[in-house]
Design brief:
Elements: H1 24-34, H2 42-46, H3 56-62, H4 64-74, H5 106-110, H6 166-171, H7 179-194, E1 197-200, H8 210-215, H9 220-223, E2 236-241, E3 267-269, H10 272-288, H11 296-302, H12 322-325, E4 330-332, E5 335-339, H13 345-365, H14 372-397, E6 415-423, E7 428-436, H15 443-455
Antiparallel strand pairs: 1-6, 2-7, 3-5, 4-5, 6-7
C-alpha cells in the first residue's frame, strides 16, 4: 500500500501503509473517529454512498466498487487485503462468508486496528494478542455501532462503552507486535489452498455457522495461536482418502445421479454401486421401528421382499399405507428405483454439484481417465445420498409412528452437507460437516414443503 501523496489534504490516521492488513471497514472507522466525521460526512469525505441502515463491515466487504471509491479518496491503490477472497483457503460460492457479524479483538480495536482475518469463522482468537474474538459489547453484551442509524459513534455501545481509544489510535504507526508475521504466513497458506480446495454448501445457507469453521485445517503453527484445539473438528463427520479401483462398482454408473437434477425429479434410477447401501438403510430402519409400526406388507417391502416376516414381528393394526409402500427402493426387473419424496432437495443438489465440480477440476488437471479421485467422489456421493435418504425415511414415517420422536438416536431430523473437496494431480481428499435444516419446524413438515416446491413450484 503506497503512502498518501503530499498534494492531497491529509487526514488524521491516514497512513495505512504503516499498518497493512487493515480491513476496509477498519480504515473507514479509524478515519471517521479520528477526524470526527459523522454519517453525513462520509460521502463528502470519501465519496461513499451508503444508507444509514447499512452494516458497514458487510457493505464494504461485499462491494468492490465501494472499496475502489474509498481507496481513491485516500489516494491509494485498493489493497488486496480488502477483498474477502484473499483470506479464504478455498474457492467456491462464498460471497457472504465472513462479512457479518462484526468480530473484533479488544486489544486491536482499542488502537483502531481491524484486519479481515478477525472476520473468518475458523479464527476464534486474535493470533497475536491471544484474546477471544467478540461480536458484542464486553461490558453489557449489547450491539456495537457499525452503521450510521444508531445515533452513536462507530465502535461504541449504547451502555456508553467506547471500544476505540482515540488517543492511542492516533499514535498507531505500526501493526500490533506479531500481526505482520502471522498475516503474511496466513495469506501465503490461503493462496496455496485456493488452488486445490473448493467448498460446497447448501443454497441459501448462512456460511458463518460452526461446520464451516470445523472443516478448515490450518497448519499447526497458525492454528494453535488462532483457535481452541479442543473444538477443532467437532462437527466434521468424515475424512475420505483415495481408495483402490477394485473396491467399487464401475464409474459409469455414476451417470444415473444426473437424475437428481432438473426442475421436477421424482424418481431416481439407483446406480449399481449404491443399491446395497440404499437397501441397507431401509432394512435397518424397519428392524429398529417400535413393534406395531408397520403392516406385514410394508415390513416385507422394507426388508427386500422376503417371503415371511422375521420372528417376533408385530404388525400394525391399520390398513397398508400407499405412501409407506413407496418409501423403500422399488424393484423393477433387476433395477432399483428410489422415490425422491424421501430425499430433501439440498441433498440432490449437493450430489450433483460435487460431480460437476469434480469434472471441472479434472479438466483443469488435464486428466480424463478414471482414477482414485473418481472412486472417492462416488463414495462421498453415496454417503451423502444414503444419509439424506435415512433422514427422509424417519421424517415421513414419523407421521405414522409418533414414537420415533422419543428415540434418542433415530429422532426425526434433517441435515444438509457441507463438503470441502481437495483435488490435486496425485491426491484427493474431502471433509464433510452437517447442519440442521429443520430448526424452525418439524422434520416431516420441512421435507414435505421442500419436495412440494421442487415438484410443483406453484405450491
Amino acid at each position: 500500500m503506497s503512502a498518501t501523496p503530499p498534494s492531497r489534504t491529509r487526514l488524521v490516521g491516514d497512513r495505512f501503509d504503516l499498518v497493512p492488513g487493515q480491513s476496509a471497514f477498519g480504515c473507514l472507522a479509524r478515519l471517521a473517529r479520528l477526524n470526527y466525521f459523522g454519517p453525513a460526512d462520509w460521502h463528502r469525505a470519501f465519496g461513499l454512498r451508503v444508507l444509514r441502515s447499512d452494516d458497514l463491515p458487510r457493505a464494504l466487504a461485499m462491494s468492490e466498487s465501494r472499496q475502489r471509491t474509498l481507496a481513491g479518496a485516500l489516494g491509494i491503490e485498493r489493497p488486496s487485503t480488502w477483498a474477502p477472497d484473499t483470506w479464504r483457503p478455498f474457492c467456491g460460492r462464498a460471497e457472504q462468508m465472513g462479512t457479518s457479524p462484526f468480530r473484533y479483538c479488544v486489544g486491536c480495536i482499542r488502537v483502531g486496528y481491524h484486519p479481515y482475518l478477525h472476520q473468518l469463522p475458523w479464527i476464534e482468537r486474535c493470533p497475536w494478542h491471544g484474546i477471544r474474538l467478540r461480536t458484542c459489547c464486553p461490558r453489557c453484551g449489547g450491539s456495537i455501532a457499525t452503521s450510521g442509524d444508531t445515533g452513536r459513534k462507530l465502535l461504541t455501545c449504547a451502555c456508553g462503552l467506547d471500544l476505540m481509544n482515540e488517543v492511542a489510535a492516533a499514535r498507531l504507526n505500526q501493526q500490533p507486535r506479531g500481526a505482520a508475521e502471522y498475516i503474511t504466513r496466513y495469506l501465503a497458506w490461503a493462496a496455496g489452498e485456493r488452488g486445490t480446495c473448493t467448498l460446497i454448501w447448501p443454497a441459501n445457507a448462512s456460511p458463518e455457522i460452526q461446520p464451516l469453521a470445523s472443516l478448515i485445517r490450518m497448519p499447526a503453527e497458525l492454528e494453535h495461536r488462532a483457535r481452541s484445539i479442543r473444538n477443532a473438528g467437532s462437527h466434521v463427520r468424515r475424512c475420505h482418502r483415495g481408495i483402490r479401483a477394485d473396491q467399487t462398482q464401475p464409474v459409469e454408473d455414476a451417470k444415473r445421479l444426473a437424475g437428481l437434477s432438473g426442475d421436477c425429479p421424482q424418481i431416481l434410477h439407483v446406480p449399481c454401486f449404491m443399491v446395497s447401501s440404499i437397501n441397507a438403510v431401509a432394512k435397518n430402519l424397519a428392524r429398529k421401528l417400535p413393534a406395531g409400526s408397520l403392516t406385514l406388507r410394508e415390513q416385507l417391502l422394507f426388508l427386500g421382499g422376503i417371503s415371511h416376516p422375521p420372528s417376533g414381528f408385530v404388525a400394525a393394526v391399520r390398513s397398508t399405507s400407499g405412501t409407506i409402500q413407496c418409501l423403500p427402493p422399488m424393484l423393477v426387473g433387476s433395477q432399483r428405483y428410489l422415490n425422491l419424496a424421501t430425499v430433501h432437495p439440498v441433498i440432490g443438489d449437493a450430489v450433483v454439484r460435487l460431480g460437476t465440480l469434480y469434472k471441472t477440476r479434472k479438466s483443469e488437471l488435464g486428466s480424463e481417465d478414471p482414477s482414485d479421485v473418481d472412486l472417492l467422489l462416488l463414495k462421498i456421493q453415496r454417503e451423502i445420498l444414503c444419509r439424506g435418504y435415512a433422514e427422509g425415511l424417519r421424517a415421513v414415517i414419523s407421521q405414522y409412528v409418533p414414537d420415533l420422536y422419543f428415540s434418542r438416536r433415530d429422532r426425526p431430523h434433517l441435515t444438509a452437507p457441507w463438503v470441502l473437496l481437495r483435488v490435486t494431480a496425485s491426491y484427493c481428499s474431502a471433509r464433510q460437516g452437517y447442519v440442521r435444516l429443520d430448526r424452525n419446524e418439524g422434520a416431516a413438515d420441512a421435507l414435505t414443503s421442500a419436495t412440494c416446491r421442487r415438484t410443483r413450484p406453484y405450491c
